[in-house]
Amino acid sequence: MSVALLCVAAVALDALLGEPKRWHPLVAFGNFAGRIEQRFNSGGRGWRSHGVTAWFIAVVPLTLLATALSWAPYIGWVLEILALYCALGMRSLGEHVLPVAQALRGDDLDEARKRVSYLVSRQTSELDRTEVARAATESVLENGSDAVFAALFWFVIAGVPGVVLYRLSNTLDAMWGYRNERFERFGWAAAKIDDVLNYIPARLVALTYAVLGKTGLALKCWRTQGPTWDSPNAGPVMASGAGALGVELGGAAIYHGELHQRPPLGEGPAADADAIERGWQLVQRGVWLWLLILCAGAQFYA
User: Fold this and answer.
1) What residues contact residue 76 under an 8 Å CB cut-off, 6+ apart?
2) 137: number of CA atoms within 13 Å, CB side?
3) pLDDT, position 258
4) Most buried one in 15, 117, 121, 205, CB count within 10 A?
């Protein structure tokens, strides 16, 4: 089965079923990674070398196992679809961000704060309507890149080994890649590896957002605002996405009790419920564009 059809099948499966409600492989992996971190970073005393060792123990054996299973005769293509399906989080992203917009439209700020707290690591208990909408819009743009597009990219580039390696690495970055006392040294390897794996996909996503939105403004924001962000990949993605939507994102946010003055992203009115929904639609349209390009390419090279 061609890579394009495998991608279409996995995206369709995600749209139909969403994330597995029970026995999600990434939940099991997260528990496994937690035990590894306790072993190599007890009390936050692990060094960079411990983080590198822990990353290899967590990622490499499982990647090799998944690769071997995908080569099984007759059922290998099924396992390829399942591997990509488990790595995608498209429907789940919508299920998390759209209730934030719905709560804002219903003037239920407390519910909107609670819902957005599931998406972001910043403090949400005192956010106003605009700040809630801004956080949710930023999340849908960035997580669309991490949880959807990058998984598709690495599956196309390297099949099951690529998508499993990427998704496990991205999960470790989400768990260990914090710049705090506990993870500053230990989580360095997980953060840097995720940065490398996301470098090309993030820029393809920024281009995708620009093509499907306010192109000139998106490219301008990507060029001028993306480099000001502290993340080399989130900056281009969110700057281009904010420009494509024609809204203003970024600004001050509180993380773990500390106020961070983040650079502005995008241009236009402040984010609102409509911006959240349009951000989600931008991700969806981007996925359909990628699948269309893959299918057209498959026909061209057939």
Assistant:
1) 69, 70
2) 32
3) 81
4) 205
Print the domain residue range for 185: 3-300
Question: What's the average model confidence in pLDDT over 268-278?
Answer: 97
Rounded to an integer, what distance in angstroms lies between the CA atom of residue 264 and that of residue 206?
17
Provide the domain count of the chain: 1
pLDDT tops 90 at residue 300:
no
Nearest Cα neighbor of 53 from 157, 180, 141, 185 is 185
Look at the chain and count its residues.
302
pTM for the predicted model, two decimal places: 0.95
Give the pLDDT score at 28: 92
Confidence of residue 136 (pLDDT cuts 50, 70, 90): very high
